[in-house]
Design brief:
Blueprint (H helix, E strand, L loop, with lengths): L1 H18 L3 H23 L5 E7 L5 H9 L17 E5 L10 H5 L4 E5 L6 E5 L8 H13 L2 E7 L6 H13 L3 E8 L3 H17 L13 E5 L3 E2 L4 E2 L5 H12 L1 H61 L5 H11 L1 H10 L1 H12 L7 H31 L3 H9 L10 H26 L4 H6 L1 H13 L12 H17 L1 H33 L10 H16 L1
Parallel strand pairs: 1-4, 1-5, 2-3, 5-6, 6-7
Antiparallel strand pairs: 2-4, 8-9
Helix pairs in contact: 1-2, 1-20, 2-9, 8-9, 9-13, 9-19, 9-20, 10-13, 10-18, 11-12, 11-18, 13-15, 13-17, 15-17, 15-19, 17-18, 17-19, 18-19
Length: 556
């Protein structure tokens, strides 16, 4: 049950990391997910697995020398070059190589050097961490990551560095994590009075920081090591100087119950810290969801209103340039078509043939492309206006500001919108041409006329969709209305009134879907920049809280 809850918690933390609207919150969720996956789950799955004992310390504190002393071999280099430990060194007994599985993130990224020794203590994995105050940021991050993975931390400081700020920041994180501690105070002055004074001051600082109960074996112990207490042959601290630590580790090896108890204590502490972190994260999620809903409602309204406005302008047909309409009207010859309509359909067929075949080529493609260009320009203009309106409102909200900082393109229509629309309109025109051919084949008397001027009839159909007489008033009556009439009459004469009404209606619906999809895609950009959208994280805050609570209870 505990394992299932932890796995579910890790899954939801991954969702949180992928949908958080700002980098620092995504990073916090990912850190907690890795803590669950890389420490809590492996430890909960196997309480008898080797303990991970991490040696932490500042630059030059003697961590590597301590590791060499504890394993009885020169496995980690010390020296004057700082930082000395550039890569973590993990040491285990030959029989405990499986213990390296407790460092999954580090081993997967090949950031830890794994060493097995026949004389190493069974049941322990000793890790020499990089310096937590290293000038190299990657080293600092690795040191903190190892702290999160530790069952026991041996914290090494020196007589000259114990009061520095950075070590206390790391100790505060260890306290928050709840990991058991052993303290080493290295390089004490040889004079007993001075050494006692430093030790007393260090213990006083630890008590003031409420570390007294953080000891791995009861009250927190400080192991003093004098300057010069070295084993030069092994590049190690002298065995006698660290006898209390050696003894503590030997007891863990000899006593399975004590070792399991320390592992359980570290696991429980790790789980107890999770609900507080989750509570803050869950509150953030709820805050973000409320803000996102509000911001996305603004986007909904802006794009909906501009889509309606685009549809109204499309319905009036006044978005097209007058010279485009005039060019088409002059070609078809509205007056001549009207005269032939009055004289009879038979003569009209001949007229259509004479209008569409002889003389200069019909400007069908040019007129259609010009009409498409006008529609594309109008669509982009409305998409631009909707985006600017949304961005202006979002700038007044902190989450909106961050979203716009992530994608400055939200201030306008998306790049490539016009090109995508042009491609879709060309495909739409091809479908219209295909339907015209089918209609011509169905009407035997008019098949010849339909086949003679498919391009011209197709352009006439496109303009019939763009321009119709409904809603035209006042100054709009003119070239626009005249073009609407001539297109309608020409198509009705060739295909019949009922066929044309149904055909134009279908084409208009198809065009509407193209524009709807274009606006939906423009609107969807705002979902993506706010994360996966509200729908992607529904119930996440409640699930996180419940899983964290059950996991903490399950470890008890």
């Amino acid at each position: 049950m505990l394992i299932d809850d932890l796995q579910a918690l890790a899954t939801d933390l991954a969702l949180r990391a992928s949908t958080a609207p700002v980098a620092d919150r995504a990073e916090a969720a990912e850190r907690l997910r890795r803590h669950v996956v890389e420490y809590v789950l492996p430890r909960a799955a196997d309480a008898d697995a080797p303990l991970v004992v991490v040696i932490l310390g500042s630059t030059g504190s003697g961590k590597s020398s301590l590791l060499n002393a504890l394993v009885g071999a020169r496995v980690s280099e010390s020296g004057v070059l700082r930082p000395t430990t550039r890569r973590p060194v993990a040491v285990a007994h030959l029989d405990d190589a499986s213990g390296f599985a407790l460092l999954p993130g580090l081993t997967a990224r090949d950031t830890v050097e794994l060493r097995t020794l026949p004389d190493a203590r069974r049941g322990l994995v000793l890790v020499d961490a990089p310096d937590f105050d290293s000038v190299e940021l990657a080293n600092r991050a690795l040191a903190v990551e190892l702290l999160e993975l530790a069952d026991l931390v041996i914290f090494v400081s020196t007589a000259t560095r114990y009061a520095d700020q950075v070590p206390w920041e790391i100790l505060a994180r260890a306290q928050q994590r709840g990991v058991p501690l052993l303290m080493v105070l290295n390089r004490l002055p040889p004079e007993a009075d001075e050494a006692d004074s430093v030790i007393a001051d260090y213990r006083r600082l630890l008590e003031r920081g409420d570390f007294a109960d953080a000891g791995a074996f009861g009250r927190l112990e400080v192991v003093p090591v004098s300057e010069g207490a070295l084993d030069a042959e092994r590049d190690a601290l002298a065995a006698g100087a660290i006898a209390p630590i050696r003894g503590a580790l030997d007891r863990l090896v000899a006593n399975d119950a004590e070792r399991r108890e320390l592992a359980r204590r570290s696991l429980v502490a790790a789980l107890e810290g999770i609900p507080a972190a989750i509570a803050e994260m869950a509150s953030q999620v709820e805050d973000e969801e409320a803000s996102a809903r509000s911001l996305l409602l603004v986007a909904d309204g802006a794009y909906r209103e501009h889509r309606v406005a685009l549809g109204e302008e499309l319905g009036r047909g006044t978005f097209m340039r007058a010279e485009v309409l005039r060019q088409w009207q002059e070609f078809v010859g509205a007056g001549q078509v009207a005269r032939f309509l009055a004289q009879g359909m038979g003569k009209l067929v001949a007229s259509v043939r004479s209008l569409l075949q002889p003389g200069p080529p019909a400007p069908s493609i040019e007129v259609r492309e010009a009409a498409f260009a006008d529609l594309v320009a109008l669509t982009v203009q409305h998409a631009d206006a909707a985006a600017r309106r949304v961005a202006s409102v979002w700038m007044e909200d902190p989450y909106g500001q961050r979203a716009l900082a992530v994608d400055a393109g939200l201030w306008g229509a998306s790049v490539g919108l016009g090109e995508r629309l042009s491609t879709e309109l060309e495909a739409w025109a091809l479908e219209i041409g295909e339907e015209i051919r089918k209609l011509g084949e169905q009407r035997k008397g008019w098949a010849q006329a339909a086949s003679i001027g498919v391009n011209a009839l197709g352009t006439s159909a496109v303009l019939a969709v763009f321009v119709h007489t409904g809603g035209l008033t006042g100054a709009e009556v003119g070239i626009t209305a005249a073009t609407a009439v001539v297109n309608q009459k020409l198509l009705e004469a060739v295909f019949g009134e009922a066929n044309v009404a149904a055909f134009v209606g279908r084409a208009r619906e198809a065009l509407g879907r193209i524009l709807d999809e274009a606006f939906a895609a423009e609107r969807a950009r705002h979902d993506r920049v706010l994360g996966a959208g509200v729908a992607g994280t529904e119930g996440l805050a409640d699930r996180l809280r419940e899983l964290a609570r059950r996991a903490a209870e399950g470890a008890g």
